Amino acid sequence: MSKIIVQKFGGTSVGSVERIDAVAEIIKNASKSNYIIVVVSAMGGETNKLIKLSKHFSEDPDKREFDALVSTGETVSSALLAMALHSKGIKAKSYSASQIAMKTTNTFSKAKILDVNAKKILEVVKDNTIPIITGFQGITEGGDVTTLGRGGSDTTAVAIAAQVGALRCDIYTDVDGIFTTDPKIVSNAKKLDSITMEEMLELAGQGAKVMQTRAVEFANKYNVPVRVLSSFNEGNGTLITLKDESMENALVSGIAFQKDQIKFTLHGVGDVPGTAFRILGPISDAEVEVDVIVQNVSVDGKTDFTFTVSSEDEDTVKRVLENVKNDISFKELIVDSNIAKVSLVGVGMRSQAGVASKAFKALSENDVNIQIICTSEIKITMVVEKDLVDKTVEVLHKEFELEK
Amino acid sequence: MSKIIVQKFGGTSVGSVERIDAVAEIIKNASKSNYIIVVVSAMGGETNKLIKLSKHFSEDPDKREFDALVSTGETVSSALLAMALHSKGIKAKSYSASQIAMKTTNTFSKAKILDVNAKKILEVVKDNTIPIITGFQGITEGGDVTTLGRGGSDTTAVAIAAQVGALRCDIYTDVDGIFTTDPKIVSNAKKLDSITMEEMLELAGQGAKVMQTRAVEFANKYNVPVRVLSSFNEGNGTLITLKDESMENALVSGIAFQKDQIKFTLHGVGDVPGTAFRILGPISDAEVEVDVIVQNVSVDGKTDFTFTVSSEDEDTVKRVLENVKNDISFKELIVDSNIAKVSLVGVGMRSQAGVASKAFKALSENDVNIQIICTSEIKITMVVEKDLVDKTVEVLHKEFELEK
After folding, report:
1. Mutate to test the interface with B, among A46, A59, A83 (most CBs of B within 10 A)
2. Edge-to-edge strand order for the sheet containing B113-115?
């Protein structure tokens, strides 16, 4: 029996009726050799249009209603894609989250997938019909509609691929694959044929913007091979491999960067046990993902505690810090939005020393000041001034000869 | 305890975010003296935009997908209206058909309501929260999304009013109430303060366009008082009374007309028992509503069988007649779309003769040729050439002094 492949199409891939026709053609061809399950995002721009409507009533609309509103974009695109397949003689049916029981937590706008009715999906597949499933959407136990957060359709696709035991999950997007860095900034950035899941995790988290971190984590956890490829151009894309299968690893695989970041510094906080938890606990409870965390050396029992979050979480973090102000005494709260992150990623870093110092030397020679440094086994993250991001990426790309 | 009123807002009433604000104000005021349940249509124009998208793929798209697609308009407006109420300090929650188990038949695009979870709706009401329910939508037993056909939101509202035992169902629209005829055609057409359910049934069926026939039938069947009023202007609208409560009835209450009609004539059909059934049975099975039906006097065992349907059903009827051609022998099929219907409606007709002859005389004096005449207890319907509709309505409005 042929195997199942889950194909996910993002917003630009289905951005117009003509694009939906093109996607239907891709699905039709793929369905000749495999069973296909499709996950689809809203037509490009539609979600933003809906968000704009909601902003008329409130800057911070009720999240239950917000999710009910924005999830309609996926319902529209899934029905249209089913129609496009019918017009090509292919049997297909659209399914909303409710219809395939895509159960999630009840954290509106940032819901996490708990379960999905794989049996129902497989019944459709067995009927030689292609299920076109709405990405991004979920439902709570009580039947409320939730959404998985920006880029959530990737997670939907991987979760379904895991549950139905798919051979592979193909993430169709508007880029040809994963590059050593953004080709818009470094013109000779190179497409990678494969990348390890670990490297991809670091790249996605750092804003490579090709695939959502949570989706990569899901793929990693459930051993789902993922391929990232273009729905616009032919090509094999980049395969995200479960294990590191290449004999020799490049020192650095790619450079990621992220501009929509904000830096909070609690100046003069007491350097006592539990401080980090008392600050980050409530922020985590508010479902904000904290990224770089640095605590400087203590002076006179006081220290500076710094962390970065996505710009969109600025108000939430401010509110949380206001609430916990009495628990954590600090002298001053410094908020800096004129920052960005740049990260070098590569499994090769594990075994080879000197990557960090090589990077810092190159940046220093090019007058780039690094505000914060944070390293892990396969990643070096640097926080720099927002205006210096492009330069930083260029310098590092050249230094590590990624164009080769 | 105060009583429940169901308020339904049509597409023009919620046609923009500003209109949604205005509607929220109406709901807020009404909620001071009664419990309110809201039923809402899609924002004006949105459903047509979605239909246009679907037409790219097929002139006759799969109805299951079509319904999934077009039902999203109501989901959008219900969520936005809930947000608008929140901004005014009112507790409200949007509910889709799926969430309140609005069960229907599985006749996509023309589904009929079977049941609704009134208990769930009343639980929301008891929690001092206004439920904002999507009109037009339903779900089948199997969980597929259906729609109730054009104007279906009226039916949703009346069905819910019946199930929750509401005091009244207020249908908010863009007109001030029910008029003796269309004010666009007869400038001194008069607004009626009340009208009987029977008269309204005839008017709605004949295209008064204010409220869907099925909704009036529902209201009639379940004894739900309905009021039609404007969401744009203040005023009490027109109350559709259960019984005829006025002492004296006007001879003619109003004039309705409908231009989007098509006439089918089966010429030379056998005048044998069962002919009408063999023609109309399959048409009814195809969910097409047949309107005026006339069978002419038989000559030599042959007769002419004529009926009118809505223009949108033209293709369906042609297909059905093609299929039954062998069962029913006829000489020729004549299809005429250059027609329209005009109807005089009034409960007073019951007890007073001469309305028909008075109407025919006035029309004859004004050179209007009547192609088909069809009378009932409280209605006289005439089929005329499409171009003569306005003239016919004007002549009759003047003849029966409806401006007074």
Report:
1. A83
2. B113-115, B103-104, B137-139, B145-147
B312-332: burial string, b at 16+ Cβ within 10 Å, e else: ebeeebeebbeeeeeebebee
Both B12 and B155 in a single domain?
yes
CA-nearest of B113, B172, B123, B116 to B146 is B113
How far apart are the C-alpha atoms of B371 and B365, rounded to whole Å?
16
- pLDDT, tens digit, for every residue of B98-113? 999 999 999 999 899 9
Is residue B298's pLDDT more than 80? Answer: no
How many structural domains does chain A have? 2
- For residue B207, what pLDDT band results from cuts at 50, 70 and 90? low
Residues whose CB is less than 8 angstroms from the CB of residue A38 and which lie 6 or more positions away in sequence, other chains included: A6, A7, A8, A9, A27, A81, A92, A130, A131, A132, A133
- The stretch B153-170 carries a mean pLDDT of 95
Minimal CA–CA distance to A57: which of B38, B41, B90, B20? B20
Domain ranges, residue B387: 255-399
Q: Are residues B143 and B259 in the same domain?
A: no
Q: Nearest-CA neighbor of A276 among A225, A214, A327?
A: A327
Q: Which of A147, A174, A201 is at the close of a domain?
A: A174
Mean pLDDT (chain B, rounded):
88
Domain's final residue, options A174, A197, A232:
A174
Q: What is the CATH number of the domain that holds B264?
A: 3.30.2130.10
Contact between chains at A79 and B65 (C-beta distance less than 8 A): yes
pLDDT, greater one: B144 or B367: B144
Low-confidence ranges of chain A (pLDDT < 70): 1-2, 204-209, 243-250, 274, 296-299, 350-354, 377
Looking at the structure, tell me whether residues A383 and A292 fall in a common domain.
yes
Q: Lowest-confidence range among A50-54, A369-373, B92-96, B129-133?
A: A369-373
Give yes or no: residues A166 and A270 share one domain: no
Contacting residues of B for A25, CB less than 8 Å apart: none
Which residue in A16, A52, A57, A71 has the most chain B C-beta atoms within 10 A of its own C-beta, making it the best mutation to test that interface?
A57
Whether residue B188 lies inside any domain: the answer is no
B98/A143 touch (CB, cutoff 8 Å), yes or no: yes
The Cα of B35 is separated from the nearest Cα of chain A by a number of Å equal to 21
pLDDT at B2: 60
